[in-house]
Amino acid sequence: MKKIFLFLGIVLSSLNILHAQNPADSFYPFKEGSTWELSSFNAKGNPTGRNVYTITKVISSGKTYTASVHSTSFNEKDKELSNSDYDVVFSNGDIHIDMKSMITNEQQQQFKDMTMNIEGNDLIIPKSLTVGQVLANGDMKANVYSGSTLFSTISYVSSERKVLAKESVTTPAGTFDAYKVTSKINSVTTTMGIPIKFEFTVIEWYAYGNGAVRSEVYNKSGKLVSYSVLSKITN
Q1: Which candidate, 141, 140, 138, places its Cα nearest to that of 158?
Q2: What pTM value is reported for the model?
Q3: CA gap 95, 134 in Å, rounded
Q4: Strand 94-97 to strand 115-121: parallel, antiparallel, or no bridges (unpaired)?
Q5: Distance CA 229, CA 189 (A)
Q6: Residue 10: exposed, middle, or buried by beta-carbon count in 10 A (0-12, 13-18, 19+)?
Q7: Which of 24, 12, 10 is nearest to 53 (CA)?
Q8: How many whole angstroms separate alpha carbon 178 and alpha carbon 206?
Q9: Extents of the domains making up the chain
Q10: pLDDT tens-digit profile of 77-95?
Q11: For residues 172, 5, 158 and 167, what is the CA-based torsion angle, rounded to 10 degrees?
């Protein structure tokens, strides 16, 4: 569940940059070696862990650029929990985020000795954002096999995505001009025929070149569950 509010976003802060066709001017840090850290907290403000992301390589093909991202997760005692890898693609000015990044740390640990097949539609951050804009959904489905037997399925849908405002946001990493984006999250994990469902509202603040600088997760009753902030960044 922690990764739900750590999900990477990426946004530009001025309209003249929003139409750029160079990944260096995009929502996302597309420089090899770039590293950033998101620190997580519960509703009371107590630390629950952190995730460190590093771009390990960037490959270009025409006007398409693919950044390979390595993520390392730590708990509140700074013990390393898991590692994962996913891709972020810059194409025609838009950012495409691989939805397999939404597989949680807990799920990675639970199914580490099994085979996982993942399919779905990338989460897309368009090349231009305006307040009131409605964004496309993203979805992911994973089938987990123990040998040749289907053991579990995981589905994740990000819907009702909308740009609410443009605001100044301050985190330990600095002060950013950011777009406030809301979305509805529906996640279902079915193991041996037993489904476990989660429904959340996520509010994220995206800043040009830095991704999601703050994220907040609310339950169905509108109560804050957790939040994360950008705590370090090195471009």
Answers
A1: 138
A2: 0.80
A3: 16
A4: unpaired
A5: 27
A6: buried
A7: 10
A8: 5
A9: 2-234
A10: 999 988 888 888 888 878 8
A11: -30
Answer whether 78's CB lies under 8 Å from 63's CB: no
Residue 38 · residue 205 · CB < 8 Å:
no
Per-residue pLDDT tens digits for 147-201: 999 999 999 899 999 999 999 999 999 999 999 999 999 999 898 889 999 999 9
Residue 219, token pair as written in the block: 């339950």
* Radius of gyration from C-alpha coordinates of the chain: 17
Architecture of domain 2-234: Beta Barrel (2.40)
Task: Show the tokens assigned to 83.
Answer: 């590692």
Q: What is the pLDDT of residues 214-226, one digit of tens each?
A: 999 999 999 999 9
- CB contact at 8 A, 190 and 153: yes
User: Residue 148 and residue 141: Cα distance in Å, rounded?
Assistant: 18
Amino acid (1-letter code) at residue 179? Y
Token output for 70: 């390595």
DSSP string for 204-232: EEEETTTEEEEEEEE-TTS-EEEEEEEEE
For residue 165, the cross-strand partners are 180
> Hey, what are 203's tokens?
């509010």
Pull the structure tokens for residue 157: 């849908």
Q: Counting beta carbons within 10 angstroms of the beta carbon of residue 78, is it exposed (0 to 12), middle (13 to 18) or buried (19 or more)?
A: exposed
Query: How many Å from the N-terminal Cα to the C-terminal Cα in the chain?
Result: 28
